[in-house]
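Subject: Sanity check before I submit

Could someone independently write out the structure tokens for this chain? I want to compare against mine line by line before I put it in a report. The sequence has 532 residues.
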Amino acid sequence: MTAELHSHYPVVIVGAGPTGLTLANLLGVYGVEALVLERNALTVNEPRAVSIDDESLRTMQAAGLADEVMAQTVAGYGSHYFSAKGRCFAKVQPTEQPFGYPRRNAFRQPVLERQLRDALPRFVQVTAAFEHELISFVQGAEGVTLQVRDGNSVRDVTCDYLIACDGASSTVRRGLGIGMGGSTFAERWLIVDLENSPSPSPHTKVFSNPKRPCIALPGPELTRRYEFKLHPHEGDRDMLAPEAVQQLLATHEAAAQSKIVRKVIYTFHARLAERWGEGRILLAGDAAHLMPPFAGQGMNSGLRDANNLAWKLAAVTSGGLGPGLLDSYQRERRDHAASMIAFALNMGRVLAPPNALAAWAIESMFRVLSYFPKARDYIAQMKFKPPPRFAEGFIVPDGEGHKHTLVGRLYPQPRVLTADGKVVLLDDVLGDGFALIVRSVRADAVLTALAGKPWRDLKARIVIMADTPAAPLPADIVAVREIGGGNPRLARFNDHVILLRPDRYVAACMKVDEVAKGGDKVAALIKGTFAA
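---
Independent answer below. Compare away.
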């Protein structure tokens, strides 16, 4: 792709994978001038990640691409676990949509990357420079100087912030001398991607057979992926042979007419960068963390990075908040990435038990849990997936303890009814920046306080969520009503005002009668660490 480069950008992104392209689109939404450097001519063509979750689809919504992405997915699939004897001993089939989208969705990474790339021309301030390679970089007090190769020529480009989304073997991470802690799996898995592979089940099938653990994952348009665990005595060449692959597929319910489009052997990693940046350079996606695929969270974790970084880069480069805000990125994201790696490892132990005794123990545990409704619901609704929750960063802790507080958590996204009779998702009325949700019929009691500092400095949009909001309301204030009677988990936060960050995490939660005190705490948070 031919691109005319400027000499300076507020943000340069290295790598046009899902993380880098998502970050570029979000920066476009926020109005930030940015450059994406990608050494390859095109986005990927081969299948890679195959599962996109509800949090990532909410990020696509923020980028204005949710409908387009959803049109190319198989929404809401589950996982069925089968014993060595073929008995289904567990079903993970979530139906709840706390963030507005199905919790698990099958997709194709090449399609998503094309959608993200094709969406960038919407933003005149975002430049995508394919076939442009980062050769070297030097960081100074005022910015970063890059050497960029375009064909046979090399030129200098400067930026305020450099974001490394350049993958597992990140040139930027290695250039900073940042190591990756963790381990490489000793086990190998054969990955086979199929086209024209119909299946009677839309769900993932997990064959938890110690003799040959296998996962069969659904995909859009009759695509399907098989993952087979290999044994130490099985050589790569032998297991990649056509007859070996066909035998494995035939004994695991693959359709006879299936077409193999890729077969490869992977050794999976569970690694975390020792630090996620240095000065004006930050790591995201696989450059910062590598995780086994058993939970389908590798790419999704990278999209969480992009969502966390985008609004912070926008706030800092515009001068709205100070550069200390970017220090909160690692503090907010690294622990959750570590918990997702642990989660993936534990999922791997369930789907690939090392021996018959371990398999029996796992199956027995699930059978016992199925007799208890709460435990059964916990598994079926996938509530065991570690939710992101910040203990520090751009938040005002409310002192109510880990279990019940909203602060630091991703706020639910219900469908709401607007004043003009439209039913939309909540984020569609919140705008792109900070938002104040007033969960009270006494909204008029706090509107004057919410018109002052620090809310005015944050340019927070006020949204009243109540069955009978106070009237009349100022023209710039939105009133909505939650469809379906409201989220029972949020009932204890009625008569509260909730400050949402642009990434829809809760920064502060205040009782209506304590908004002035809450405003003082938010002002102190900004002044203490994040002031421009």
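---
OP: Matches mine. For the report I'm noting this point. The CA atoms of residues 243 and 289 lie 36 Å apart.
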